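request received
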Amino acid sequence: MATHTVGTDEEWLGARKKLLVAEKEHMRQGDELARRRRELPWVPITKEYSFETEDGTKSLAELFDGRSQLLVYHFMFGFGYRVDEQNPGCTGCSFAADHFDGVLPHLNGHDVTLMAESIAPLSELNAYKERMDWKFPWVSSLGGDFKYDFGAAFTQEQQENGAEFNFRHVDHPAPQREGMSAFALQDGVVHHTYSTYDRGVDALMGTFQYLDRSPLGRDPGGPDSGGSWWKRHDEYQDS
Amino acid sequence: MPEHRVATQEEWQAERDKLLAEEKKITHRGDELTKIRQELPWVAVEKEYSFETDDGTKSLAELFDGSSQLLIYHFMFGPVYEAGCTVCSSIADNLNPNAPHLKAHDTKLMMVSRAPLEKLQAYKKRMGWDLEWASTAGSDFNRDIGFVNTEEELKPFLEGDIPPVVEQMAERSGTNPGGYVAESPGISAYTLEDGVVYRSYVSTARGLEPTMGYYFLLDRTPVGRDEDRPGEFWLHRHDEY
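response:
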């Protein structure tokens, strides 16, 4: 006896077709939002930022690496979910980062550079990256304002007195949060085009998307419950 | 890159705030759709299917491999293909790193294709994937679920104007348009309870975009997908860029 409603092929097909109409409508709403994102104005960045990379110190413009667009994932390092000395990269960000190498060649082939950025020494990022067997570029923004200016890290003063996170006031923001920012390079000028945080990076995690299509879903507590079943990919028992 | 409207931080912020409200709506609508998906009735799969795997011939129930849920990506690699479909290959790039996380969530993720197992194994090695990939050669599995098309069914399509992207993709897989579109891509989901396999969900076409993480990211870039430009389709196998 199944624990769920069981139907015939015809019953299933009837329900599936109804759902398909809703899925298509949702997909088109997504297309419309993508169009509206592209219509956002661009904001020229006049402040100088510098990053430590595998190829030495670079400016924000240099991070584009010859391409016209740049996506930077704000990776929480030294702070975050299940972080300690042996495991300095946030578990949630590590989960997100597991998805980067698969899309990297395709984005690069589409004139988009994708990388991660953290406020930690490059040597620590490199060591963790080697352990996780990742290939995507990961730069250090330690010592600069980049992560703070793009809303993914908060000063002691902000943590005590409040700041904006995900475009709304938070009384006591955490020292770091996850997020992603997009930039365009035109005539040597870098423009900020888009940033997103919190569940705005949800769809990046294919695992969530696939579980949303599985019989039992992604999380018993629902998508906003901050599910905690996932681990670093090398921490699962039989990995 | 095209000329674009430039604004101050405050102007950007005002427009971003409005967009955020819409983005949240669509995220929550997605959550609702997930609920509706989970409410679909399950259909018992009564027909016997067999799959050729790295560990020998298996039944559909055996593919679960200890998990209670099974997600299958139907990868376009027909018997006449010389290499796997380019777009499916980019999807497999996305699927591959998810398998350990899904397994921890009681869900087995794998791929199936109609080409013989040896062809799949050789191609998988070339692409560096470790995701399980079974052959349905000799089984009706892909046909029954609607991801195999007969010559007769394809006749109207093949006699019409074949889109250039289909020509390109067929050529890149070492076949012709007819051979290429004999296969369709798709995903299907199953659960196993008391030894009975139930099918819960099937999707295809743009319903596969959640397995294409690059679209999620391109939809957040200044230029976007930009797929209307003439010439060759932008996606390639990851070792062909």
